[in-house]
């Protein structure tokens, strides 16, 4: 019996000692938090909840320290756990801080839901109500901006498409103009070539006709040569006959034929 009492006293003393350590870590964390040494405060809060996860004060202050370090996702996890604790007063504060964490993380719709949960646990919290209205206004502005951006994007896409179509039409027209120009140039070159060929043919024909009208001496036909020879022989005979009648002596006529 004495041994059992001793064990019970030991356990009670151990529990009291650990509780005192928890409070000591929380107290130290609070001091560091007030000094804005949020990283060191986080370390002490974590020590305070290391063996007892239901240490509400340690967990809540740990969430605050994480929030101050802009670790919004981790802070949100802490506040979500506390919001589900079943304590309305604690849940109201936890959801309020969760809403702040989500708002800082640009998660507007989620932050609105968190603020609503906070108000369900404490409808008289004007600060939460203000934050809810603020988050709703920010969401409205975001939606309007998104709508405006979408409209601008659609207008830009339409404008780009029109420009694209216009550029394509211009290119098609340029290609057609170039094709027509090349064809005209080709036809013109062909016409010029045909004209040159016709001019050359005409020159060749004119030259041929001219040559046909003026026969070359070295191209006399056999009949023409014979006629010329007969004419010369006839002239020579007549000349000899005349000389014979005059009876000229000492004179010799030499008729040379040059053909």
UniProtKB/TrEMBL annotation:
Official protein name in the record: Tetratricopeptide repeat protein
Chain positions of TPR repeats: 22-55, 92-125
Taxonomy, superkingdom: Bacteria
Region (Disordered): 138-259
Ranges of compositional bias, category Basic and acidic residues: 138-227, 234-243
Record-linked SMART domains: TPR (SM00028)
Pfam families membership: TPR_1 (PF00515), TPR_11 (PF13414)
Keywords, sorted A to Z: Repeat, TPR repeat
Cross-referenced InterPro entries: TPR-like_helical_dom_sf (IPR011990), TPR_rpt (IPR019734), Ycf3/AcsC/BcsC/TPR_MFPF (IPR051685)
